[in-house]
Design brief:
With about 300 residues, the chain is α/β, with parallel strands linked by helices. The protein is built from 14 helices and twelve strands. It has helices spanning about 1-15, 30-35, 40-45, 60-70, 95-100, 115-120, 130-135, 150-160, 180-190, 200-205, 215-225, 235-245, 265-275, 285-300; strands at about 20-25, 35-40, 55-60, 75-80, 105-110, 125, 140-145, 165, 195, 210, 230, 250. The strands form three sheets. Strands 2-1-3-4 form a four-stranded parallel beta sheet, with helices on both faces. Helix 3 packs parallel to helix 4 (about 60-70) and helix 4 packs across helix 14. The longest helix is centred in the C-terminal third of the chain and has 17 residues, at about 285-300. The protein binds 1,3-dihydroxyacetonephosphate and iron/sulfur cluster (SF4).
């Protein structure tokens, strides 16, 4: 069954001129059939490089939106149109205006996990793998970092010369990883290194050996001489971690490292989206033009 779906998807891909982009958090079997798998920065960049007419996105809505904003001429299709990241909505644009009034020189730095509307009111976008580089390159001293508080706090700790104003957004998956559970996992696996995503809570990051985006966690584990790792991010990364490192062991902290939105994407839904080229991402052109500026600036500064 699974094999016949995969075969059909492969055939339709060529026939309909579709490229499949997938995030590391989707199911392993979806990652397996994607043309490119990566973190949010890689996927946003890749979307500007592919030559196919249609992009089928296996990820949450802000990822498909970014692909469409940067490539208005392409048809961007979501594997599941309801897969959304709750954190992307955790900011009111009135708050941006308020902070801009208070701090005349503030740069609004927007994590890509945000709606097109929030991007349109921001100065530059970042992802967890390029935020340090991008924020350091900004001339502004005051930085309003939105919407994720934990990522903002982590970036602020690395750039003490700037003043950060934080927003109280969060990822429910990463904030469900608690220090107490991590300490217990460390007791069970005393030789393991702890690799964490910066969306985790501050007290989890404090006892981590490495902090980075999904792809940075993957490359750290590959390069490291250690043999065991405790992984503080969504479970989807285990697929690539185990594939690339058959002789290393990877442990989770608890059973909540599971993004229900990323996990909506199944092979059946990919096949349906491939057959129908729906649901398609549509963005009002005025909004798209405004949101494209901070995304393009990110691609430029992150080079
Ligand atoms: P990455 O940019 O590390 O891929 O993270 C995306 C994400 O949604 C984290 O929760
Ligand atoms: Fe959003 Fe968290 Fe899911 Fe990433 S893991 S898509 S930040 S809810």
């Amino acid at each position: 069954m699974e094999d016949s779906i995969k075969k059909e998807i492969e055939q339709l891909k060529r026939k309909k001129d579709v490229v499949i982009l997938a995030h590391y958090y989707v199911d392993g079997q979806v990652q397996e059939l994607a043309d490119f798998v990566g973190d949010s920065y890689f996927l946003a960049k890749k979307a500007t490089e592919v030559t196919e007419k249609n992009i089928l996105f296996c990820g949450v809505s802000f990822m498909g939106e970014s692909a469409k904003i940067l490539n208005p001429g392409k048809r961007v299709v979501m594997a599941d149109g309801t897969a959304d990241c709750p954190m992307a909505h955790m900011l009111d644009i009135d708050r941006i205006a308020e902070v801009r009034r208070e701090y005349a020189d503030a740069a609004v730095v927007c994590y890509v996990n945000s709606t097109a509307e929030i991007k349109a009111y921001s100065d530059v976008c970042v992802t967890s793998s390029n935020a340090l580089r991008v924020v350091r390159a900004l001339p502004n001293r005051n930085i309003f970092f939105v919407p994720d508080e934990n990522l903002g706090r982590y970036i602020a700790s690395q750039i003490p010369e700037k003043n950060f104003i934080l927003n109280d957004g969060f990822c429910h998956v990463h904030t469900s990883i608690y220090k107490e559970e991590l300490l217990h996992a460390k007791e069970l696996h005393p030789d393991a290194l702890v690799l964490s995503h910066p969306e985790c809570r501050e007290n989890v990051l404090e006892i981590s050996d490495f902090i980075g985006s999904t792809s940075e966690i993957l490359s750290f584990a590959e390069r490291s001489e250690a043999k065991e790792f405790i992984i503080c991010t969504e479970m989807g990364v285990f697929y690539e971690l185990e594939l690339k490192n058959p002789n290393k062991k990877f442990y989770s902290v608890g059973h909540r490292q599971f993004c229900p939105n990323m996990k909506k994407i199944s092979l059946e839904k990919v096949l349906y989206a491939m057959e129908t080229l729906e649901p398609v991402v549509e963005i009002d052109e005025k909004l798209r033009i405004k949101a494209a500026k901070p995304l393009s600036r990110m691609l430029e500064l992150a080079k």
